[in-house]
Each structure stands twice: as structure tokens, then as C-alpha cells.
Amino acid sequence: MDFVHLCIETTDEGVRTIRLDRADRLNAVNPRLSVELPAAVHEAAADRAVRVIVITGNGRGFCAGLDLHDPAGLDDSPEAQRDPYAWVGRWVQAIVGCEKPVIAAINGPAAGAGFGLALACDLRIMAASATCTAGYVRRGLSPDAGTTWFLPRLVGHARATEILFTGRDLFAQEAQQIGLCTAVYDDATFADAVAAFAAQLASGPPLAFAKTKQLLLASADVTLDAQLRDELTAITQCFASEDVREALAAFREKRMPVFRGR
Asked: Given its phi and psi angles, is residue 206 left (phi above 0), alpha (psi -120 to 50 degrees) or beta?
């Protein structure tokens, strides 16, 4: 696909950065962007050279949610109502279904569906000046983009309810305190800090990351016995990989392992 509203970059370490590029609209979602982003995530997921995906925004915003000046992608037909992945739900499907770590680098305001986009990622890193805002109630709307599924799992039901009912801004320091984001960096050093973190993650074992992501996503909806069985299956598969043999050899030789994803 030719991307109109995305900038794509890949480093030698295997970090694929997907940068939303509608800076004049704070990277708000229009119909074209709602199609391009999941396509870009699927492409990165299928590329063996990519180890980690970073999603961020151009300019001073991460993603301001639905572009109210161009909301034509919303579909209230019966078919769309029955499709759980309609509209920005396809973002969530692509990110959750991707076996590679996905980082939301929140460089500026993440609001509405942009907040949901960040929540769907495996990890969130924020610039000190960035904010997260559910904001739906300010427009008389209920949430979308998986927000009501991810948010209570990250911060608890009561806090999620307060955040969604008030539609208030969450500043970076509070987001870190309540476990919504992993780290906060000064604006001036944010890009370099994200790049270093992503590169470090990209040096890790792809199979182990994939299995860990699958287990974490399933953990809220299965019994302990089922989770124990799934963990045993996953770790047995990891033990059979070349990466584990490399890790054990590196341990004996007192060096850092080099993981190949095999």
C-alpha cells in the first residue's frame, strides 16, 4: 500500500517506526488513516527483519482521535454494527494480533481513539509534556478503540470509570504513577530515549516475546489451571528453539546472547 498519512522508517537493529503524519490535524483519524495504520502494522508483523514496532506522531501530537472535520469513515449500517473491528477497531486487531512488541511513543496529546491506540500497544512511553485524554464524554460519545477493555485492565475498574466519566486530561507523571505508561522522558531527549529503548528491546528473543504477549493477553479470560498449561506449552516450545541454545551458550561463555528468532 502507498501510505499518504504515514511515515515509515526501519533501523538496522530492526526497529520499525510508524509515524502518523497529519501534523496539521494533530494526527487525527480520517478514513484514509484508519485504513493505512493497520495495513502498516500487518506489513511490519510480516517482515522478518522487524523486531519491534514503534507507533508515534509527527509534529506536536500523538493522535487527537477522530477528525471531526472528516468523519466520513464512520458507518452506522447494520453490517458495520455487527463488525467488532469496524473503523478504528482494526487498529486494535492489528496491534494485538502482532506477535512483535509494539511501543506507543506518546510525543504529544493522545485523545479519544488516539488514547485507545496507545492503550492497545504493549508498552507506552510518554514525553513529559504529553497528555492522554479519553475525552469522549466531552462530545457526548461513548468510548471506542478498545478503551473500555484495556483501561480497566491497566489501572483498575474504579479508576478507569472516573477517567472515562470525567474525560479529564492525564498528564505524564500521573500516567506513570498509575501504571499507564512505562517511562516519562523530557521532551528534548524523548526521541533518543525511545530509540534506545526500542533498540534494546529489538535485541531480545522474538519467540519468547511472542509467547509472552499471547499469554498476557489471554490471562484475564482463562482459569489458573488453563494458564499454567498454556505457559508450559509455550516454554517447552521456547526450549526447543535455537535462541535458547544460544542463550545457554552465552551464559556459559559469559557474554551477551545474540538472538536470531529461530
From this structure: alpha
Query: Model pTM?
Result: 0.92
Q: What is the CATH number of the domain that holds 215?
A: 1.10.12
By DSSP bridging, strand 131-133 and strand 169-171 are antiparallel
Give yes or no: residues 11 and 125 share one domain.
Answer: yes
pLDDT single digits (tens) 154-181? 999 999 999 999 999 999 999 999 999 9
For 86-125, what is each residue's pLDDT tens digit?
678 888 999 999 999 999 999 999 999 999 999 999 999 9
Helices (H), the chain: 31-46, 78-82, 89-97, 113-120, 147-155, 157-166, 172-177, 190-202, 206-218, 224-239, 242-253
Does residue 66 sit in the same domain as residue 142? yes
Q: Is residue 213 part of a domain?
A: yes
Domain count, the chain: 2
